[in-house]
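C-alpha cells incoming
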C-alpha cells in the first residue's frame, strides 16, 4: 500500500475517534439535582434515555416531560387560584375588585395569551427546523460512515488488483500477435470508443436493411411471378429447338423451315408484283 494513502487513512480515523458524534443530553438542565443525587423518577420511561442513545428514547423522554409540564401547569393554576380566593375571603380587609378592573385584566390577559401563542409558534418552528437539520445530519453521518467503510476496504482492493495486474502481465507473452492487448488505458479506451462507433454504424445499416426488407420481398415475389411464364416459354422453345434438330438430323423437313420457305416465296412474289428491288 502507498504510505501516503495509509497515512491519510490513519488521519481520518484519528479525526473520527476524537470527534465522536453523540446525542446531546438535553435533560441534564431539566433534571437538575436529581441527576447529581442519583434519584430516579417513577415512570414507564427509562430512567436514563441515553443508555441506548436512540431517537426513540429521546422521543419518549420528550413526551414524558411534555405530559409532566402539562400536569404541573394545571396544578399550579389550581393552587394559585385557590390561594388567592382563600386570601380574598379570609383577609381582615377583603379586596374588592371592580368590573372595570376585571375587564382591564381580561384585556391584558388576552394580549399576554396572544404573545405567548406567537412565542409557542416560533418555538415550534425552531424545533421543527432543528429536527429537520438533525435528520439531515444523521443521514449525512450514515453516508459518511458507509463511505469510510468503503475507504477502509480500498487499500486491500487496490493491493489485490495490483497483484492481478502483475499476474496478467506475466501471463501475457512479450511478442504478442495482438498488440492491442498491451495498449495503455487511454489508447484502449479510444480503441473501444472507435469499435463502439463501428458497431453503431453496423446497427444503423442493419436497421435500414430491415426496413427495406418488406419492399425487397415484394419486388422478389413480383420478379418470380414474371419469371414463371418466361421459364415456361424458354422450356417450350428449347423443346421445339431440340425437336427441330432431331428432325433435321433424320433428313426430314422442319415446320419452321417449311414456314420459312413459304415466307420467302411469298416475299419474292410480292416484290415481283410490286416491282420492288430486293
Amino acid at each position: 500500500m502507498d504510505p501516503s494513502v495509509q497515512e491519510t487513512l490513519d488521519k481520518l480515523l484519528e479525526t473520527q475517534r476524537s470527534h465522536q458524534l453523540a446525542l446531546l443530553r438535553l435533560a441534564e438542565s431539566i433534571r437538575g439535582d436529581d441527576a447529581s443525587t442519583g434519584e430516579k423518577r417513577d415512570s414507564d420511561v427509562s430512567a436514563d434515555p441515553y443508555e441506548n442513545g436512540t431517537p426513540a428514547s429521546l422521543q419518549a423522554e420528550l413526551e414524558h416531560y411534555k405530559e409532566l409540564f402539562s400536569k404541573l401547569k394545571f396544578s399550579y393554576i389550581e393552587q394559585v387560584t385557590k390561594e388567592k380566593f382563600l386570601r380574598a375571603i379570609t383577609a381582615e380587609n377583603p379586596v374588592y375588585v371592580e368590573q372595570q378592573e376585571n375587564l382591564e385584566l381580561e384585556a391584558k390577559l388576552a394580549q399576554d395569551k396572544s404573545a405567548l401563542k406567537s412565542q409557542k409558534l416560533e418555538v415550534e418552528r425552531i424545533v421543527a427546523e432543528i429536527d429537520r437539520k438533525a435528520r439531515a445530519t444523521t443521514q449525512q453521518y450514515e453516508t459518511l460512515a458507509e463511505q469510510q467503510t468503503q475507504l477502509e476496504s480500498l487499500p486491500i482492493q487496490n493491493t489485490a488488483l495490483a497483484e492481478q495486474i502483475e499476474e496478467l502481465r506475466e501471463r501475457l507473452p512479450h511478442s504478442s500477435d495482438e498488440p492491442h492487448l498491451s495498449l495503455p488505458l487511454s489508447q484502449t479506451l479510444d480503441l473501444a470508443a472507435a469499435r463502439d462507433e463501428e458497431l453503431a454504424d453496423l446497427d444503423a445499416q442493419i436497421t435500414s436493411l430491415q426496413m427495406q426488407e418488406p419492399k425487397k420481398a415484394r419486388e422478389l415475389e413480383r420478379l418470380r411471378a414474371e419469371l414463371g411464364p418466361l421459364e415456361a416459354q424458354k422450356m417450350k422453345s428449347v423443346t421445339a429447338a431440340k425437336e427441330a434438330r432431331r428432325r433435321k438430323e433424320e433428313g426430314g423437313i422442319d415446320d419452321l423451315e417449311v414456314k420459312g420457305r413459304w415466307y420467302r416465296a411469298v416475299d419474292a412474289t410480292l416484290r415481283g408484283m410490286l416491282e420492288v428491288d430486293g
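note: Residues 99-171 form the longest helix (73 residues).
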